[in-house]
Amino acid sequence: NAGVTQTPKFRILKIGQSMTLQCTQDMNHNYMYWYRQDPGMGLKLIYYSVGAGITDKGEVPNGYNVSRSTTEDFPLRLELAAPSQTSVYFCASSYSGAVETQYFGPGTRLLVL
Amino acid sequence: GQNIDQPTEMTATEGAIVQINCTYQTSGFNGLFWYQQHAGEAPTFLSYNVLDGLEEKGRFSSFLSRSKGYSYLLLKELQMKDSASYLCAVRGDYNTDKLIFGTGTRLQVFP
Predict the structure, then answer these.
(1) Looking at residue B53, what DSSP letter applies?
(2) How close is the nearest chain B Cα to the Cα of A62, in Å?
(3) Residue in B with minimal Cα distance to A90
(4) Which residues of chain A have a CB within 8 Å of the CB of B43?
(5) How does pLDDT run along chain A (113 residues), one tens digit per residue?
(6) Residue B29: which of B93, B101, B99, B102 has the closest Cα?
(7) Nearest-CA distance from A18 to chain B in Å?
(8) To the nearest whole angstrom, how far is the Cα of A32 from the nearest Cα of chain B?
(9) Interface size between A and B, measured as CB pairs under 8 A
(10) pLDDT tens-digit series, residues B12-69
């Protein structure tokens, strides 16, 4: 049982490039989330999903896209990378109604130059 | 609006007790969570309060007052490994489990 896994761990992008951050969970959780965390700050919700085929925007969705074709996977797409997207990205998952709420992946550190 | 406030930094001595406060103003409330985050790592769940009162878990306790929009995390018998950031988060919507996070309190424990 690997929990929540994220790839890559670290990436450097040039301005205008695109990339997909991968997130997979093997706990059969129906809810999944993408957050970004800027240095010294809390987590901001980018997008979330309550089940396969259902996604919705969080607090800071601009510049990102997501899809949820399976229960396990929830990739995050950056289409035109900007320096403001330099951050650490965390994927999380949870089971509806769970008290202990969200389990986090190890994070992807992204640097846009 | 949604607002969660925590002190930015705190320091304490090994073996001591420290209390980290969190105040919140959110459009809905369905639970308050505390997470611990060591530098360069993912947040890990510490505690959950949905009813008023104190929840104790070993060296860690968390308190909630819904009428005051207030919570605290109490850490006893501090150890060096407790040096980390502590994130307060509120679940406003039970149907989605979405969390609103504070900016976190960075705790440094000195010998």
Answers:
(1) E
(2) 18
(3) B42
(4) 43, 90, 104
(5) 679 999 999 999 999 999 999 999 999 999 999 999 998 888 999 999 999 999 999 999 999 999 999 999 999 999 899 999 999 999 999 987 666 678 999 999 999 99
(6) B93
(7) 24
(8) 9
(9) 62
(10) 999 999 999 999 998 888 899 999 999 999 999 999 999 999 999 899 999 999 999 9
Sign of the CA dihedral running A101, B92, B107, B51: negative
Please, which residues have CB within 8 angstroms of residue B51's CB and are 6 or more apart in sequence?
B64, B66
Q: Show the 3-state SS of chain A.
A: CCCEEEECCEEEECCCCCEEEEEEECCCCCEEEEEEECCCCCEEEEEEEEECCEEEECCCCCCEEECCCCCCECCEEECCCCHHHCEEEEEEEECCCCCCCCEECCCEEEEEC
* Chain B residues closer than 8 Å to A43 by CB: 43, 87, 89, 99, 101
Would you call B103 and A40 a contact, using CB atoms and an 8 Å cutoff? yes
